[in-house]
Amino acid sequence: MIGVYIGVGVAVIAVLGMLTSKLIKKQNRKNKDVEEIKGVRYTLGSEITKPENENVEGLDAKISYNKNDILIPVKEEKTVGKNADIKPGKYTILTTVEDKTQINIRLGGYVRVYSHGSEIVLAEGDKITPLSVGIILR
């Protein structure tokens, strides 16, 4: 009889633990601009803020940098993957230099000109390299 009470108690504690865990995850998702599902990054909002004249060490650029942003310095190659530098998903490209609105980026072996604020979709295995100025992926 005591074994039945212990079993029921353990089951109740397990259910409460799962519910609490789900509530915490749901609350954390509400507080972030980015949601990660199975290693893939999904942006919940796409607001682009005006540069706030912040200086990032090593870039000497005036930029606005948010918590979930990915900073890529000039000529530094980053790999896209679930366990790599950048998660697969949709990003907004921002330049780190106020005067530059056009950015040369090598993606998938090809160099293309992107504009500040344009959107890009990065897939598993892509390699991205900014060639003209550093970029922020938001």
Structure description:
It is a single chain. By secondary structure, the chain is an alpha+beta fold. Helix content is 21%, strand content 34%. It contains 1 helix and 12 strands. It has one helix at residues 2-30; strands at residues 34-37, 40-43, 54-55, 62-63, 70-72, 78-79, 89-95, 102-107, 110-115, 119-122, 127-130, 135-137. The strands form 4 sheets. The protein has a 4-stranded antiparallel beta sheet, with no helix packed on it. The chain has a 4-stranded antiparallel beta sheet with strand order 6-11-8-9, with no helix packed on it. A two-stranded antiparallel sheet has the order 1-2. The radius of gyration is 21 Å and the shape is elongated. It starts with a helix and ends with a strand.
Structural class: alpha+beta
By oligomeric state, this entry counts as: single chain
Report the β-strand fraction as a percent range.
25-35%
The ordered string of helix (H) and strand (E) elements is HEEEEEEEEEEEE
Query: Segments where pLDDT lies below 50 for 5+ residues?
Result: 48-62
Straight-line N-to-C gap: 58 Å
Helix content: 10-25%
Placed side by side, the strands forming the largest sheet appear as 5-12-7-10
Give the overall shape: elongated
Largest beta-sheet characterization? 4 strands, antiparallel
Give average pLDDT, whole number.
Answer: 77
What's the count of strands? Answer: 12
Radius of gyration: 21 Å
Number of helices: 1
